[in-house]
Amino acid sequence: MKQIDYFFSTISPYTYLAGERLEEIAARHGASVRYKPVDISALFSRTGGTPPKDRHQSRQEYRLQELRRQAAKLGMEINLKPAFFPTNSAPSSYAIIAAQETGGGDMGALVHGFTRACWAEERDVAEDEVIRDVLSRAGFDPGLASSGLLLGAETYVKNLEEAVNRGVFGAPFYIVGEERFWGQDRLEDLDLHLAGKL
Fold it and tell me: In the chain, what are the domains?
């Protein structure tokens, strides 16, 4: 069975735009997905990236146009300037890590639930109430918001180190073996690769 290592951020708009297409692709090819949330700001600083707020004005403007166009193509709602961005992505990431370890719910729905909360619902994914609600809606124990803190914190740090060591520099980022795919607009290439066509 092929494994897809999925590096992402719960506050990344492009992770939001990926929706649950990764899970559909994995199911089609009988692949497993290992979810690895990372601190995107730390990843940028370690790999030569620049946070959106620090980019040249022309890059910031283009980013907003691109997000609007991609959301329209996918038929997804998006608030280009959400009330709670940037915010602390660690608490929601800890919850994802704990949920993956515990099982019992829908991981794709959980990840998408957090990104949708940020980019379409004007909710702060750093707040305990939001984390519990998203966990519950995806079929997980909302108590993981607090019980998974230690495991989450340790794994979150390890995920960043693994990401840097494996050539990850943005989100979403998918790795199958030695093949790397960056961005929600490369999901088609990932699909073709798993089908043995690329």
Answer: 3-194 (3.40.30.10)
